[in-house]
Amino acid sequence: MDKSMRSYATNCSASGQCWVTDASINQVEKVCIRAMAGFNMASSGDPVEMMMHGTQCSPIIARNIIIHQDVLDINPTIGTYRIPYMACLPTPLTPHAQNSIASLRDINSMSKPVAIVTGAGSGIGEAVAIHLHNERGYKVVIADMNPTSGERVAASLGPNALFIQTDVSSYKSQAQMFKRAYEWGGNRLDFCHANAGIDDRQNIFEAREREELDEEGLLKKLNTKTLEVNLEAVVQGLWLFKYYVRRSEGPGSGKGKFVATSSAAGLYHMSQCPQYTTSKYGVIGLCRSSGPIFVKEGITVNAICPAFIPTNLCPPEVLKRWPKEHITPLSTVNKAIDAFLADDSLSGQVVELSQDEIYFRKQHDWVNESQKWIGEESDKIWDVGYAEPPKREGY
């Protein structure tokens, strides 16, 4: 909305609601059409961010528009005022205007970046999905095992969110979700947060009397579902993400951002859950090793390592006893996500999240010059060795 349009806003009430004059009906209709179609008016260079406020009128009536700005300069002669919203004239929209709204809604929906967040039915995943949708303008796929919580999150976000029930430990389930997300987003995929995770499903320190043998007298296999969900699903998620980013259409096509949830346990350790710790170390290794390669084609790969965040994963007895001063808020997660979104050069990074701060963590120091050479200078030799997958006998 330009300054000439702003000058139409008059008759400000004490509550801050303003109406436009009859003389500005054509101007108002243009603004209403774009706002009703869901456009962020700031995207066209206007510093005023506008969005639809759909609870005031019927679909064929001009809607109220929320202006998200503390102050708006209406007229230099009367000063600056705080205006929460401006109401369009409550007159029926013309058929042309209604058609324009429908067309613009389609265009706007198709042009939005598309994100997948796994484990988005609660906790970290839910917070990131909401942040991407509300603050970053993404269409978001809520991928989760739990239909009740997943549908709740998607419903709260509206038509630009889609719940897909997904078991990330099943490659087929995750692959079907990626395909559907890509198609729903208009043949594009821009962001993936591989966040779904579980704790250890079986104690590796099992007491002697609880160790079980099978019918052949062999010790039964340890339940390693944790590794399937926390690590293998992340590897497969990156594999799928790369495929669809390369085939994306529209603005920013061919570029994407992949974020995986590791843990502070992946930097230190957690003796109570060795498999969980192992999986989170693995996520860091995946991101550090693949990030510098993928960034060459416009795909960034990074990991977050949250400290203690109260989620459904945490045992109730731990939540009861955990000191509040050692809790990391979900807002810190979104701070890290924003850092990755803001810088296309960040890839292969590991970010530790503790309380209100984020810390970019480097790998361990080299112990000597030989290890430094192996780590930094031997790539050309390894590149030759792995130019083609080595042929092995027996496996």
Automatic annotation (TrEMBL):
<dbReference type="InterPro" id="IPR036291">
    <property type="entry name" value="NAD(P)-bd_dom_sf"/>
</dbReference>
<dbReference type="GO" id="GO:0016616">
    <property type="term" value="F:oxidoreductase activity, acting on the CH-OH group of donors, NAD or NADP as acceptor"/>
</dbReference>
<dbReference type="GO" id="GO:0005737">
    <property type="term" value="C:cytoplasm"/>
</dbReference>
<protein>
    <recommendedName>
        <fullName>NAD(P)-binding protein</fullName>
    </recommendedName>
</protein>
<dbReference type="Pfam" id="PF00106">
    <property type="entry name" value="adh_short"/>
</dbReference>
<dbReference type="InterPro" id="IPR002347">
    <property type="entry name" value="SDR_fam"/>
</dbReference>
<keyword id="KW-0560">Oxidoreductase</keyword>
<comment type="similarity">
    <text>Belongs to the short-chain dehydrogenases/reductases (SDR) family.</text>
</comment>
